[in-house]
Amino acid sequence: MHSSMQFTHSEIAQFFEVNRTTVREWQKRGMPCTTPKRHGQSAAYDIALVAYWRNLYRPHER
């Protein structure tokens, strides 16, 4: 399960219709990140991987 599109923290929040605080909490709980945040760069996420993780580990938030 791999898609080539990368999404920002804000785009992940918008896609899943949650606020950015929720996405930060997901990160703390192990949400997959395809490109970690580096000095001067934002982290990037694969929607398919995040959706898979969310369905496995956060079923009450669907």
Q: Biggest sheet: strands, sense, closure? A: none
Gross CATH architecture: Orthogonal Bundle
Gap between N and C termini = 19 Å
Number of helices: 3
What is the CATH class? Mainly Alpha
What structural category characterises the helix and strand content?
mainly alpha
Give the rounded overall mean pLDDT.
85
Radius of gyration, in Å, reads: 11 Å
Low-confidence stretches: none
CATH superfamily: Winged helix-like DNA-binding domain superfamily/Winged helix DNA-binding domain
What fold name stands as the CATH topology? Arc Repressor Mutant, subunit A
Shape: globular
Approximate helicity band: 40-55%
Strand content: under 5%
Query: SSE order in H/E notation?
Result: HHH
Describe the structure.
With 62 residues, the chain is mostly helical. The chain has a single domain (9-61), classed as Arc Repressor Mutant, subunit A. It has helices at 9-16, 20-28, 47-57. The longest helix is centred in the last third of the chain and has 11 residues, at 47-57. The chain is globular, with a radius of gyration of 11 Å. The relative contact order is 0.25. The mean pLDDT is 85.
